Amino acid sequence: DGGITQSPKYLFRKEGQNVTLSCEQNLNHDAMYWYRQDPGQGLRLIYYSQIVNDFQKGDIAEGYSVSREKKESFPLTVTSAQKNPTAFYLCASSPWTGTEGYTFGSGTRLTVV
Amino acid sequence: GEDVEQSLFLSVREGDSSVINCTYTDSSSTYLYWYKQEPGAGLQLLTYIFSNMDMKQDQRLTVLLNKKDKHLSLRIADTQTGDSAIYFCAEKADNFNKFYFGSGTKLNVKP
Fold this sequence. Notes:
The complex is a heterodimer. Chain A has strands spanning 4-7, 10-13, 19-25, 31-38, 42-49, 56-57, 64-66, 76-78, 87-94, 103-104, 108-112. In chain A, the strands form two sheets. In chain A, strands 2, 4, 5, 6, 9, 10 and 11 form a seven-stranded mixed β-sheet that branches. Chain A contains no helices and eleven strands. Chain A is mostly beta strands. In chain B, strands 2, 4, 5, 9, 10 and 11 form a six-stranded mixed β-sheet that branches. Chain B is globular and about 45 Å long. Chains A and B meet through strand 5, strand 9 and strand 10 of A and strand 4, strand 5 and strand 9 of B.
């Protein structure tokens, strides 16, 4: 079955560490996205990528980095520069036109300990 | 970014209809969407409506769009306890595939 897989489901980070969240899709979608979800604030766009080897900053990119070396994969690194990283992170993908909406992964909950 | 606004909470009794409202600001939005999020999970697309439509019905779901007032609603008929979730509306920005999401409405269905 086609879908989008995020791993791990839960992640704990110590202060000062970088961590990488995985996102893989087998839907042959061109575009991929990372959102951050905080309670009562909805979804905020971190980064998005339209094609391989290209990506753009979203509304809250500071303290995050991404790569898009393969069409199927769009990993997100939460760096030590991100001051408040505890949140629920959602990856999504869509075809080029996007009119059918996004397909979301099941999310990764990151907690700073 | 664009502003998409929703009320935060809605509580209904099982069997009643639920109406979740959303307002948006981008008059050039071409598509508007409703997503459902269950606890600890990703978002699931429920339905979407093209901006030249006024209404779309899909089984228990009815979407109404008032483009003049930039108001979107989702009506769930015969609401069940399994419908308890957070519902997000989203608009597709005119440029590429950027979507703007509301803050979500938490629907609580009481037995």
